[in-house]
Structure formats: C-alpha cells, structure tokens
Amino acid sequence: MKPTLLILGATSDMAQACAQKYAAEGYDLQLAARDPEALAAEAQDLRLRHRVEVSTHTFDVLDTAGFAAFLEALHVLPDTVLCAVGFMGDQPASQANPEAAAVVMRSNYEGPALILGALAERMEARGHGTIIGISSVAGDRGRASNYVYGSAKAGFTAFLSGLRNRLAKKGVHVMTVKPGFVATRMTEGLPLNPRLTAQPAEVATAIWNAQKHHRNTLYVKPIWLAVMTVIRLLPEALFKRTSL
C-alpha cells in the first residue's frame, strides 16, 4: 500500500507544490480546504500525472466543532499530515478590530493546534506517523509590523515543540517548518529580497528532504536562522528603536 499524505489548507501555492512533490514520490493524497471544488482540477492533474489516489475534503480551520466529523470522514488515517493553513491578515486592522485579530489568531494557532492535536492522538494510538506544521519566522520574536500574526505563529511553534517532545518515544515525529518569504500569490508585488525568498517548489523539496532525515525544525532558507538569531538576541532597549 502507498503511504498517504493529508494536506490541510491544500489550495495555497506551498501546499500545491507539496502535493506535487509527495505524489511524485508515490504518496496517495487527501486534499482538504474550505472549498474542495476548487481542488478538483488539481486533484485530477495529480491522478493523471503521478498515478496516485487523490481525495478532496471540506475543511475549515475555524470550524473547530466540526473537526471530529472531518476526521471520521477520512477513508484512512494518513501516514503524514501537513498543515499549510495560514492567514496573515492586516496588522493595522488587527490593532483596531478585535474580531479581525481573533480571526488571525484562530487561523494560525487555535485551529491548527487543535486539529493536529486530534490527529496526534490517533497516530499515537496507531504507533506511527509524521506531523508537519508550517509556522513562520514571524513567531521567533514579536515585531511591531506583524505582532498579531507573529504571536499566533509563536504559539503554534511552541505547540509543535511540546507535541514533538511528548510524542518522541511514541513513534510519531513532529516537524516545524519556517519558510520565511515565499514567492506566492499572497506576496505577489511585494519587494522581497531574493536571498531571503524561496519558491514554492523549493519549500516542497526542503520539507520532503527534512522529513526523510527526521528534522525537528526547518528553516527553508538557512540564512533565516542567522537573521532571526540576530533579531532574537538584540537587547530590548535596542530592539525598541528598530522599525522591524
């Protein structure tokens, strides 16, 4: 039997690149998103191109009450789950509107943590599995430009770290991915530094290779580890004078 990958938030550019990579490596796929009809063309392409089984599923990360039914509807518990759900939102809007801030926080932390926690329980009972969560370098230190989004990603990173620690001897591996800037539809038109920016296919290959080697934390562009180490180590008095 082929291994199975479940992708949560399967309509994003990074998720689609990961679907192509894992299908090319022989994985059957479960693609989950709010609008599964939007996945139909991609699913058919994956079937024809890679000769794998592909199913599509309705999944809304904000509908936490529906998580149990979503998991029960999967025809098989996946060997690997990739959570590619994310919503950057708008910092000024989040500052001014608690409801806008709540959507960012729930989309990037509460929902992803709860669904991966539920999957972790099932994988632990089975005795094997891999959980991959796409977090962000924005969670490495709160910065004025995006601290609502960053705080949610910081929470998600901490959740994945704790989950990894708990499951280390249970046959379930947990990996945290921090892509940095990625050239996607969401960032189109932004002045991104090429040295700090990855392509979706580059992210997918890095995730695949990191999973094979049981990496715990992956900075897709290694330069981001150096950049964020410097930012984390800045004394608070100096950090408050920056415009990060």
Write the layout of secondary structure elements.
Layout: E1 4-8, H1 13-24, E2 28-33, H2 40-50, E3 54-58, H3 67-73, E4 80-83, H4 91-96, H5 98-126, E5 129-134, H6 147-167, E6 172-178, E7 181-182, E8 197-198, H7 200-212, E9 217-219, H8 223-233, H9 236-239
Parallel strand pairs: 1-2, 1-4, 2-3, 4-5, 5-6, 6-9, 7-8
Helix pairs in contact: 1-2, 1-7, 5-6
What does this structure look like?
This protein is of the alpha/beta class and 244 residues long. It has a single domain (4-239), classed as 3-Layer(aba) Sandwich (Rossmann fold). The chain is 47% helix and 16% strand. It contains nine helices and nine strands. It has helices at 13-24, 40-50, 67-73, 91-96, 98-126, 147-167, 200-212, 223-233, 236-239; strands spanning 4-8, 28-33, 54-58, 80-83, 129-134, 172-178, 181-182, 197-198, 217-219. The strands form two sheets. A seven-stranded parallel beta sheet has the order 3-2-1-4-5-6-9, sandwiched between helices. Strands 7-8 form a two-stranded parallel sheet. β1 (4-8), α1 and β2 (28-33) form a beta-alpha-beta unit. α1 packs parallel to α2, α1 packs across α7 (200-212) and α5 packs parallel to α6. It is globular and about 55 Å long. It starts with a strand and ends in a 5-residue tail after the last helix. The mean pLDDT is 95.
